[in-house]
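During the second half of the funding period, the structural biology subgroup turned its attention to how the target accommodates small molecules. The most pressing case was TZD, which had performed well in the primary screen but for which no bound structure existed. We therefore specified the complex as follows and requested a full 3D prediction, including the ligand pose.
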Amino acid sequence: MNTVQQTTYDILRSNGMNIIFGNPGSNELPFLKNFPEDFTYVLGLQEATVLGIADGYSQASGKPALVNLHSAAGTGNAMGALANAWNSHSPLIVTAGQQHRAMVSVEPYLTNIDATLLPRPLVKWSYEPSTAQEVPYSISRAIHTAMSEAKGPVYVSIPYNDWAQEAEQQSQSLISRKVTSRRALDTDSLDSIATAISSAQNPVMVLGSDVDADDANDLAVQLAEKLKCPVWAAPSTPRCPFPNRHRSFKGLLTSGINSISEQLQAHDLILVIGAPVFRYHQYEAGEYLPANAKLIHITCDINEASRAPAGDAWVADIKPALQQLVTAVEEKTTALPDFRNSPLQMGLTSPMRPETVFDTLNWAAPENSIFVNESTSTTAAMWERLTFAGQGSYYYAAAGGLGFAMPAGVGIQMARPDRQVFVVIGDGSSNYSIQALWTAAQYSVPVIFIVMKNGTYGALRWFASVLEVGDIPAFDVPDINFSKLAEGYGVQAFSAGTPNELEQAIASARRTGKPALIEVETWGALQ
Ligand SMILES: Cc1ncc(Cn2c(C)c(CCOP(=O)(O)OP(=O)(O)O)sc2=O)c(N)n1
Ligand SMILES: [Ca+2]
């Protein structure tokens, strides 16, 4: 008869989840005992790093990822990263070891007290099995819940003495169990949307991360070319849903209530696909929609549909819905939108401006590179100057929680060894999950980290001006030597002060086939 542990590994195996991303404590050791040879354990040195690596791997591979954390303390460390995973609809199965079932109620050392409450509301489901024999059913449910649209993280707390128990014979059937959820628009909904689009004089598309997550970028291009309409990326989108060099692409939509309405005021139909309406940032009073504009919202997430403050929403999976729209809508007879103005050419300065760094990186990066952004004051310049061509070309922290990019870059590079991953990160953000460098070195993950050093929290300086709070004592982060930090974690470091030096450093880093960090002094955000 199989044990609970054996049956659980069989369920993970049959769902293609042969990697465990974790940082263990004593509660987790019975789960890891006799670790199967066909599994890999990816160790992160802190749990926010662990979950970030798993998040990047899951988003870039499209597969569910198993995370194994230590009780409450490990789960608590991972909560910031979980906020990002929740917002990016990442299918993570987060497990944590619980104390021995016989004494949880007396709350001994390492008890995960009220374990299922800890990760809420940042999970779709949170559970602690009531018996050892329920563990395989709980893991099976967790996987299928995480993978059903809208995808998202789930949490299972498991007492450590459960693993050696005998599993129920009938739980073997879970190993081959499949759950398929693929929802298209029903006929009436499709007709209603297609009619509204056909009668629009000046439509605009606003696309979000779920287009990229569902590998529907090419369909979005087909729809935009049929509608001859401009395309914006949704505010603060954590993925790139549309090739940013396409002539119809107009950039990242701004993130204020009134500013968005002003930016879209020329349009009579706003077609939002794969994004919330909208991910506002700084508060602005104003109208949610421009006067005389209709908004149609297609999302895979019932919560996004329900909470939107304006427009009509339909819940469907993004790729099937886009396929239907491409077929159903009539081609517009207008011309394609004009190309955007090309970015301003910046004078060569020392230190370099971020724009110069991005122009050089765009020149030096191989075709189809992947960029992971956490250089918060330079996001707009990055979208203007780097090339995000195909599906899965750009990632950003979906909840804005810093400490995403370094670990996510490691996970993304693990999932996509065929593409070069660049993490472009600020000198402030580089400190939130820098332990990811160690995992990159230990597992020889050839991700390249470019640290943009302006000695300050540039984005906060910008925000202080918007919120008119003046100077505050917590803005500057001078005197950090990232080369020494990188080498301390086993990652080769380079520094670059000119475009040529940056190009050479990238070429040298790529030749090693190992991770590398390039430290770049840059002009500050407000200089
Ligand atoms: C976990 C966490 N802590 C703090 C912040 C607040 N924050 C902070 C501290 C920023 C400054 C980042 O500075 P940087 O050096 O990484 O990049 P820039 O200089 O380009 O802004 S941007 C921002 O939203 C955050 N978003 N997430
Ligand atoms: Ca900075």
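Two results from this model are relevant to the next phase. The mean pLDDT is 97. The pocket of calcium ion (ligand 2) is lined by residues 426-428, 454, 456-458 (CB under 6 Å).
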